[in-house]
Amino acid sequence: MTSAQSEGSEQAPLVSVVLMAYKRIEYLRITMASILGQTLGDFELIVADNSNSPEIARMCTVFDDPRIHYIGREPSLSMVQNAKSGMKLAKGKYIANIHDDDVLDARFLETLIHPMEQDEKMGSFSVITKLSMQMGWKMWPYPTKIRGDGVGRV
Length: 154
What we know:
Blueprint: E1 15-21, H1 25-36, E2 43-49, H2 54-62, E3 68-72, H3 79-89, E4 94-99, H4 108-118, E5 122-132, E6 136-147, E7 150-153
Parallel strand pairs: 1-2, 1-4, 2-3
Antiparallel strand pairs: 5-6, 6-7
Helix pairs in contact: 1-2
């Protein structure tokens, strides 16, 4: 884990996942595990902590993953400003904004990024959440893509 991204010659990741966190440590471990367990591993995880919490900073070190970058904020920003600040640090070709209480399906990034890599006109994807009594809330890719020339199906 690093406290800020360093300039260097290392190759930029395909995806920057910006995880917006604020004092919900009880969910954060599960959220981070679902991100780090993605089948597409070419990403960085930017944890934008809007509470500057020592517990959240410690959680980032527990995973001991060099893809994790922790950014503590003090004073706290609005949710939108916190997201923007995380996106400004992103090095990836694509950016995924995730909240600290989201749980991603293991193929979430792979399912979203593959079609975008195949069609350069594609601008963004939507996601839906699905409730499972056994699994709780989980985010799944939604099969509609937004393109410069309209909306189409994947």
